[in-house]
Design brief:
Helices cover 69% and strands 3% of the residues.
Length: 260
């Protein structure tokens, strides 16, 4: 899919504007039919993702970058194949988010390959973590189920500490954080949601600022949905309202869990 573009005049109009000012101008252009729905989706998602990355980089100045964490080792054939598959899935997700077309269904053989990669000891933990996160975001429920099962079995073992790098990578995602991330962290007892005690208070303290960033992005997405026109508006508003409510429930439970 070709990258969406704006006119020279539109790019000049955007110079020096804040994120909210850019989004407001984008709304105005869409209402006047000066841009398409595809352009609206692409640039709004792109600008918010870029802004959230700046915030995360600023609030975590001591955390190692992905480049610093990598060691110079020979990459196995399976590792290279897994990286290639990761890039393919990411491209398909990007195209789906831009066009909001039909949900993407993977081939049975691809699902089997992903399951095999998650169990393959020759593939690095970092690649597996990224594969799980992309798998949770991918619009195919069968892949979502595979990744959720792997998290329950490998990332939330009752006799192991939480995999800090995985959960931080999941919540610092510059794109859409899946609802499964919220569900995996909560449990319901006596009608009340609370953080799964598997998580340490130290990890929850690290995650709260990231969850807040993602919650704020959901607020912005809800505002976009409310500005839409046509038959999609009601459905989008309802969907984004449910997501925002879930993120707020998680944040409240997290603050109670860490005592503040």
């Amino acid at each position: 899919m070709a990258k969406e573009k704006l006119t020279t005049a539109q790019n000049i109009a955007l110079k020096g504007l804040s994120l909210q000012e850019k989004l407001d101008l984008l709304h105005e252009w869409k209402k006047k039919k000066e841009i398409t729905q595809s352009q609206f989706n692409f640039f709004s998602n792109h600008w918010i993702s870029r802004e959230s990355k700046k915030i995360i980089d600023t609030t975590s100045p001591l955390r190692k970058t992905q480049t610093e964490n990598k060691t110079k080792i020979m990459v196995s054939v399976e590792e290279a194949a897994a990286e290639k598959l990761l890039n393919k899935l990411q491209r398909q997700i990007n195209a789906y988010l831009a066009d909001r077309g039909p949900a993407l269904q993977l081939e049975t053989a691809e699902l089997a390959t992903i399951k095999r990669y998650l169990q393959d000891s020759s593939i690095s933990i970092g690649t597996k973590n990224r594969l799980i996160i992309i798998g949770l975001r991918y619009p195919d429920k069968r892949l979502n189920e595979i990744c959720n099962k792997h998290i329950s079995e490998k990332k939330k073992h009752p006799y192991k500490r939480a995999n800090t790098s995985f959960w931080m990578l999941l919540w610092e995602d510059n794109n859409l954080v899946p609802m499964d991330a919220v569900r995996q962290m909560l449990k319901k007892e006596e009608g009340k949601y609370m953080i799964d005690p598997f998580f340490s208070t130290e990890l929850i303290r690290l995650l709260v600022p990231m969850i807040e960033i993602q919650r704020d992005k959901e607020i912005t997405r809800l505002k976009w949905a409310q500005s839409l026109e046509g038959h999609d508006r009601e459905r989008e508003v309802a969907r984004k309202t449910r997501r925002l409510n879930a993120f707020n429930i998680l944040l409240q439970a997290a603050h109670e869990y860490i005592g503040g």
